[in-house]
Write a structure and sequence with these properties.
single chain, about 325 residues, alpha+beta, T-fold, 9-stranded mixed β-sheet, 3-stranded antiparallel β-sheet, globular
């Protein structure tokens, strides 16, 4: 509980959390938000549970599991919201030249990341896996999904948590809740309105970005208001083979783990887009990400890459105001685009 400098101002937060989608979903509300806010937050978490039942490949009766089983045989009807999400995923695949791909699970499997039993695959195994993926085989028409490849499968793990936060925002808007912070694990965050206390001055909510090399530490703080953040990194899932490090973020186009990015954070109005683009920007790097953002003005990024000197991090920034970002880690060099 945080005490205000003004005795009549309640500045502590209500924290309502639940585990879903293999992470902790957390909703933070100002204590003086309207009386129904806590109940509305519980309803939002119920919605997340419903979405997990609909989207998860680990639920045998989910719409996505049914699509994976049957869409190569005949078109499968899906809910309007699932069709909308698949359409967004394919759009981002196209816009990033395949750097984000919801059909790339075969590569995660061949590298062992899917079951967290990592191993260096044979080149032929990578080639075979690549032949079974690609959103060019994913056909979307009139709320139906069909596959043009018998072995195609889709996995919304790289966009689903952000999409759930977007749906929670819709739920809060329909109940006139204006100030809140939504977390889905450490990678997906959505902020709306303001954290009310004597220091925020209507700047929104301050978010800590995790250090890509030392996960228990912070890299920077950023102010976020009416936007979402998605972060992609491989600090928690990697392995070494003959002294070389391989992380779990794989470039779907080459079939190999990305080597020259430490983390990628994307700021966007849409949490689903931020999630997907964080993965894509991790793959394509800051120069190509800059080209994307120049064509999509509501998108900005913070990308960390290894510096030329040992333990130095280069922090590449596009579209983030200086006053909104506070670097808290040592040995960081800022590169602005």
């Amino acid at each position: 509980m945080q005490n205000s400098s003004h005795p009549d101002e309640q500045t502590y937060l209500l924290d309502i959390s639940r585990r879903a989608m293999a992470c902790q979903f957390q909703i933070l509300l100002n204590a003086d938000e309207q009386h129904s806010a806590a109940e509305t937050a519980v309803q939002a978490l119920d919605l997340v549970d419903e979405l997990e039942e609909q989207l998860s490949i680990f639920r045998s009766e989910s719409e996505i599991s049914r699509v994976n089983r049957l869409a190569a045989e005949k078109p499968q009807a899906v809910s309007a919201n699932v069709f909308q999400l698949l359409t967004l995923a394919k759009q981002i695949w196209q816009e990033t030249n395949g750097a984000f791909d919801i059909t790339s699970t075969p590569l995660s499997k061949v590298w062992g990341f899917h079951t967290r039993q990592s191993t260096l695959p044979l080149p032929d195994d990578i080639t075979s896996a690549k032949q079974t993926l690609g959103c060019q085989f994913l056909q979307l028409k009139n709320n139906t999904v069909s596959f043009d490849h018998a072995q195609l499968e889709i996995n919304l793990g790289g966009i689903g948590k952000g999409y759930a936060l977007d749906r929670c925002r819709e739920h809060f808007a329909s109940h006139q809740i204006k100030n809140y912070l939504l977390h889905a694990g450490h990678s997906s965050i959505l902020a709306h309105g303001n954290r009310k206390n004597s220091t925020t001055k209507n700047r929104g909510w301050q978010i800590a970005l995790r250090h890509p090399l030392i996960p228990q530490r912070h890299l920077a703080n950023i102010w976020l208001q009416d936007h979402a953040i998605g972060t992609s990194g491989d600090a928690n899932q990697f392995f070494y083979h003959q002294g070389k490090r391989y992380g779990h973020v794989i470039d779907p186009r080459s079939g190999w783990p990305v080597q020259h990015t430490l983390s990628a954070t994307v700021i966007s109005h849409s949490a689903a887009a931020a999630d997907a683009l964080a993965t894509a920007f991790f793959v394509i790097g800051p120069e190509n990400a800059t080209q994307y953002c120049q064509q999509h003005p509501d998108t900005s990024f913070i990308i960390a890459t290894p510096g030329d000197r040992n333990r130095v991090i280069e922090l590449h920034i596009f579209g983030v105001e200086k006053e909104d970002l506070e670097v808290t880690a040592n040995n960081v060099e800022l590169i602005e685009y």
